[in-house]
Amino acid sequence: MTRIIGLIPARMAASRFPGKPLFPICGRPMIEHVFERAKLFGRWDALAICTCDEEIRAFAESKGYPVIMTSDKHTRALDRVAEAATKCGIDVADNDIVLNVQGDEPMMHPDMIAATIKPMEELPEVRGTMLAMDIIDEEQYRNPDTVKLIHDLDGRVLYTSRAPVPYCKQFSSELGAQRIYGIFGFRWDFLKLFTALAPSPLEIKEACDSNRLYDYGYHQHIAPYPFRPSYSVDSPQDIKLVERAMEQDPLWGKY
Predict the structure, then answer these.
(1) Are 234 and 15 in contact (CB under 8 A)?
(2) Could you tell me which residues come within 8 angstroms of residue 76 by beta carbon, excluding any fewer than 6 positions away?
(3) Which of 3, 7, 124, 193 sits most deeply, having the most CB atoms within 10 A of its CB?
(4) 162: alpha, beta or left, given left = phi > 0 and alpha = psi -120 to 50?
(5) So what's the pLDDT on residue 80?
(6) What angle do CA 64, 180, 6 make, to 5 degrees?
(7) Beta-ladder partners of 187
(8) Residue 180: CB partners within 8 Å, gap ≥ 6?
(9) DSSP class per residue in 24-78
């Protein structure tokens, strides 16, 4: 039976927002929101925070959350997740599913995790997925902190970019623009392949990890998800936006 391992990478030295994982949102550290919401997904064989920072380890242990210490040399979340998968207490098989649940998604819902896994369970040729959410407002479309994606008619991701793509002179919600939501699924052998590849030109230029796969001729598939008022935390300015939205979120108060 395929096992599902969830790993939440977090580090204090985020370039745009140092200390972000432990910054309070509605009175609770951001990483707490992420872990508690991820825990609501009922099919985990393992779920843990992975970090190189003692502050995050100490907080996780104070809450009773499993935590895996990783190297402090990683600059990409997927590299941290891949190391943590080898230390998660499970002998991960090549066909098992490893999910990278980004630590800056405090408004995540467990059905987003289910949506990320679904294409891999339904189509054996799908080895990796990313949650793709509709963009309905122009500010998010133009925002370089929002990573957009382009996919083909079969749902294979062709490119990810911080630029407003697909291009249009006048934005409309009918454009069909989509953003990456911070949940990525990999069969374990596909994640090992990713980490074995050297960083690629488009990955470096766009600061988008997934472009490494496309540069080398591999593909992830979209895991489509309809728009939901849900915001990532990329900079300190996002905190107030998230707190306002959190008050209206149906999961708030349930953990």
Answers:
(1) no
(2) 209
(3) 7
(4) alpha
(5) 97
(6) 25
(7) 97
(8) 130, 131, 132, 147, 148, 149, 160, 210
(9) EETTEEHHHHHHHHHHTSTT-SEEEEEES-HHHHHHHHHHT--EEE--TT--SHH
Residue 63 CA to residue 15 CA, distance in Å, equals 26
Structure tokens at 23: 């910054």
Q: How far apart are CA 93 and CA 77, in angstroms?
A: 21
Q: Angle, to 10 degrees, between the axis of helix 30-39 and the axis of helix 54-63?
A: 50
Letter string b/e over residues 23-43, b meaning 16 or more CB atoms within 10 A of that residue's CB = bebbeebbbbbbbbbbeebee
Is residue 75 exposed (0-12), middle (13-18) or buried (19+ Cβ within 10 Å)? Answer: exposed
Structure tokens at 45: 């064989």
CA 244/CA 226 separation, integer angstroms = 21
User: Which tens digits make up the pLDDT trace of 34-84?
Assistant: 999 999 999 999 999 999 999 999 999 999 999 999 999 998 899 999 999
159-182: pLDDT as tens digits: 999 999 999 999 998 999 999 999
Q: What is the pLDDT of residue 116?
A: 98
Structure tokens at 47: 């779920």
Q: Distance between CA atoms of 42 and 20, rounded to whole angstroms?
A: 27
Give the containing element (helix H, strand E) for 83: helix 77-85
Q: What span, in angstroms and rounded, lies between the C-alpha atoms of 90 and 31? A: 23
Instruction: Give the global pTM.
Output: 0.95
**Burial class of residue 22 in the structure, from the number of CB atoms within 10 Å of its CB (0-12 exposed, 13-18 middle, 19+ buried):** middle
- Which tokens belong to 123? 């189509």
